[in-house]
Design goal:
Blueprint lengths: L4 E6 L4 H10 E5 L6 H4 L8 E6 L7 H6 L5 E4 L9 H6 L3 E3 L6 H17 L1 H9 L18 E5 L3 H11 L4 E5 L12 E2 L2 H7 L2 E4 L13 H6 L5 E4 L8 H10 L4 E4 L19 E3 L8 H19 L10 H7 L1
Parallel strand pairs: 1-2, 1-3, 3-4, 4-5, 6-7, 6-9, 7-8, 9-10, 10-11, 11-12
Helix pairs in contact: 5-7
Bound molecules: 2-keto-D-gluconic acid (8YV).
């Protein structure tokens, strides 16, 4: 029997990284999005020591039961709402993720959505292509300069967005559970309701959890200015999408820029696709060659470090590591 660790790979692995992993581990391939418990033969399951997966793999109690020897699950994502962290911690399964390496890319999409909304850039492209320009000028749009950007969540990504917004002469305010000393000089702390009420652009940068699910709903949208835009590059279910659609239809807010939705991929039958005041992206915040490479490098390094008993760079439940030490 091979002495190599058996690891599930359910993430896009570049050839050189695949070789690196294969030199140390026996790879069990699971297509992205497929259930490892269903894909891996029962006889192999008790031998699986590690996994690298995307957020489309549910790391829940059922998966932990199916792989009793799992020591580490490395997420190819900074978010880990696909993981039941409490259950993993109880089972002493180390969970790793990819913080830091995607902040710039996600911030760029945030700023891009803001510019698309305020300057109506997507409609402008269609205006030129359709020949409408030959019949008259494009309607005037709105400046972002001098306006207030509100950040719900001031973590790594929020801070990069705040820095970028300074280049647009925006006033930046934020709300977090706690005031963030690292935000000093970048953004001003305000109360949660105040944030919704005063922002010209409100951008969401909080993780999805039981507490944050639908935490931006009818009440919060009702506090916003009718001229304000909502941007979500975090997780779709943080926003109550039905309430958002209602607010957009009623003109209670001016528009929304969404990189994430409650259901992904978004079906074209979604009312969001019908709304002219919405700009949609296909969850592409981190989707550049450079950033995805940095993410998979980190995800694989986390996996191999944990298996080799070296402290991984990014752990979601470091108490599992500390208990092992
Ligand atoms: C996706 C993301 O995970 O890192 C996150 O939390 O949402 C994205 O980067 C990406 O699709 C990689 O799986």
């Amino acid at each position: 029997m091979s002495q190599k660790h058996k690891v599930i790979v359910s993430a896009p692995l570049p050839a050189d990284l695949r070789e690196k992993v294969a030199a140390r581990c026996e790879i069990i391939e699971v297509p992205v999005g497929q259930s490892p418990a269903e894909s891996v033969p029962a006889a192999l399951r008790p031998q699986v020591a590690g996994m690298v997966c995307t957020m489309r793999t549910l790391v829940d109690q059922a998966l932990l039961d199916a792989f009793p020897a799992l020591a580490v699950s490395s997420n190819f994502a900074v978010g880990f709402d696909n993981v039941d962290v409490a259950a993993a911690t109880r089972r002493k399964v180390l969970i790793c993720n990819t913080p830091g390496v995607l902040d710039g890319a996600v911030a760029d999409v945030t700023i891009g959505l803001m510019l698309c909304l305020a300057r109506n850039l997507v409609a402008g492209d269609a205006f030129v292509r359709s020949g409408a320009w030959t019949k008259g000028a494009f309607p005037l749009t709105t400046d972002i300069r001098g306006k207030t950007l509100g950040l719900l969540g001031m973590g790594r990504i929020g801070r990069v967005v705040a820095r970028a917004a300074q280049a647009f002469d925006m006033k930046v305010v934020y709300h977090n559970r706690r005031q963030d000393p690292a935000a000093q000089g970048l953004a001003t702390y305000v109360g949660r309701d105040e944030l919704f009420a005063m922002s010209d652009v409100l951008s969401i940068h909080i993780p999805l959890s039981a507490e944050t699910r639908h935490s931006v709903g009818k009440r919060e949208l009702g506090l916003m200015k009718p001229t304000a835009y909502l941007i979500n590059t975090a997780r779709g279910p943080v926003v109550d999408e039905a309430a958002l659609i209602e607010a957009l239809r009623a003109g209670a807010i001016a528009g929304a820029g969404l990189d994430v939705m409650e259901q992904e991929p978004l079906p074209p039958s979604s009312p969001l696709c019908e709304l002219p005041n919405v700009v949609l992206q296909a969850h592409v915040g981190s989707a550049t060659h450079e950033t995805r490479r940095a993410m998979i490098d980190l995800a694989v390094a986390n996996l191999l470090d944990a298996l080799d008993k070296r402290k991984p760079q990014a752990m979601v439940n470091p108490e599992v590591w500390e208990a092992r030490a």
